[in-house]
Each structure stands twice: as C-alpha cells, then as structure tokens.
Design goal:
With about 250 residues, the protein is mainly β. It has no helices and 27 strands. It is about 0% helix and about 35% strand. Strand 23 and strand 24 form a beta hairpin. The radius of gyration is 17 Å and the shape is globular.
Length: about 250
C-alpha cells in the first residue's frame, strides 16, 4: 500500500482496521506500507529547510497484522512513514526485515508516532533500531541549545517491543539491541513510555530510567511468547505466556 496525494506535504489517510499485510516485498522502503508525500521546502538562512508544521497528515491503524514483509534496500520493513504521522494501536508487527533503520516501523521527520497496545517483535535488519526507529532529517529546531523537545512525538503505551535483532554494536552481529531508536534534531527525540515492556534494551536512545510502570531487562527470554519459532512465520503465536515476567 502506497499513500500519497496531489497536494505537497500531504498523503491519503484511510482508516485501516482488521487487515493483514503478509509476505510483501519492496525494493526500497516500506515492505508493506509507505506514506511518502512530496516535501515542502522553504528558503532559510544557509539554504532550504523544512517546517514540521507543514505536515499534518496522520494515519490511523487499528487491530492489524504486519508479518513477513521485506524492505530490501532501505527502511521500514513493515511500515515506512516519511514526513507524516502514525497512530497505531492493537497491532502485531512481527518477522519483518529491512536493510536499514526500523525493520518493524520507521518514521522520518519529527511528526507524531503513537504506539498503543501493540506487540513489535522478531523483526530484524542489517543496520540499527530493528524494532522501531525515528530517523533524522535536515530540520533543526529554533535555538536548539538547551531546548527540550516537544512532548507527544514518540509515545509508546501499554505495548511490548522486544526480541528484535540488528547487526550494530552492543553485542555483535545479530545482537538484541536498539529496540527503540530515537532521533536527533539538534536535541534527541526520546521515546515516552507508559506501562510498556522493552526487553533487550541496550542502546536505547535516552530512555533509561524507564519510570514507573515500565519494564526492561538486558536479555530477552525466548519463552516470553507462546510460540515465536514456528517454521511457518504466519503461524507463530505472539501471545504472552501466563507465567512470563509480564506484570503490572
């Protein structure tokens, strides 16, 4: 699925619910879904620049599955959002692959990413931030020195983001590292966690301490899910086992 529009800076925003995106392939970004509006550039000191207020589209995804999708050469094994917001809830993102950032979800430019009641797991890539990644753009905030980033840009609520793999430092090739990758725009965009589980969190940008209600450990327990190793990718069961360390 490719979302675009006749208007610069916008993309079509269907309400996507109760859908399965399985076994899709893209030669570049967005193995299953990509939103890529035409950028809007302004003349600024030192050249051209972009303003995040130009980009107001927000895609909503509810109770869907993204499994076994591939972004062969670039970002977003399952979902790739460029200059656009994503509000995703009740959704499984598993067993996807990308060769760059975000084999589960990748978002470019500081527009909102809100993840609620989701499980993002068993995704892998050959770069960094295998689970969820916010990537850099050329935009810089005004007077970034000492400026705190605005809240609400990268929110993870009541979700499990764990067991994703990449090939970057922090444990060697295939390490369980960088489950959540924030971005830097003169200041870091940090994930805001609320009652979520992020195991294998070595290298998370600016997250620890997680705060009340969140959990993390430096190692992922393969028995956390009912069945994450079935040879049939689409038959794997990512429900949490009853006796797991998942507790409120």
């Amino acid at each position: 699925m490719r979302l675009s529009s006749a208007n610069d800076g916008e993309f079509a925003t269907p309400y996507i619910q109760n859908c399965k995106f399985l076994d899709n392939f893209a030669s570049r970004q967005g193995g299953a879904l990509i939103a890529a509006p035409i950028p809007i550039e302004h003349v600024c000191e030192g050249g051209s620049c972009e303003d995040p207020e130009d980009y107001t589209s927000l895609l909503k995804i509810r109770t869907c599955e993204f499994r076994g999708n591939i972004a062969h050469n670039e970002t977003g094994g399952a979902i790739d959002m460029s200059r656009s917001g994503l509000d995703i809830a009740g959704t499984l993102v598993a067993d996807n692959h990308a060769n760059a950032y975000g084999s589960g979800i990748h978002i470019f430019f500081p527009t909102p990413l809100i993840i609620t009641n989701c499980t993002i797991t068993n995704n892998n890539n050959s770069h960094s931030s295998a689970g969820v990644a916010c990537s850099r753009s050329d935009w810089q905030p005004p007077d970034p020195e000492g400026t705190e980033p605005p809240l609400g840009l990268f929110v993870v609520k009541n979700s499990i983001i764990s067991g994703n793999r990449d090939d970057q430092p922090g444990g060697g090739s295939g390490s369980f590292d960088n489950q959540l990758g924030g971005a830097k725009y003169g200041y870091p965009i940090k994930p805001e966690l609320d009652f979520s589980i992020v195991y294998d969190s070595v290298g998370v940008v600016g997250v620890p301490p997680f705060g009340a209600g969140n959990q993390t450990t430096p190692a992922f327990d393969p028995a956390f899910f009912v069945d994450r190793s079935n040879g049939n990718v689409f038959a794997r069961n990512y429900k949490v086992v009853r006796l797991s360390r998942c507790r409120g």
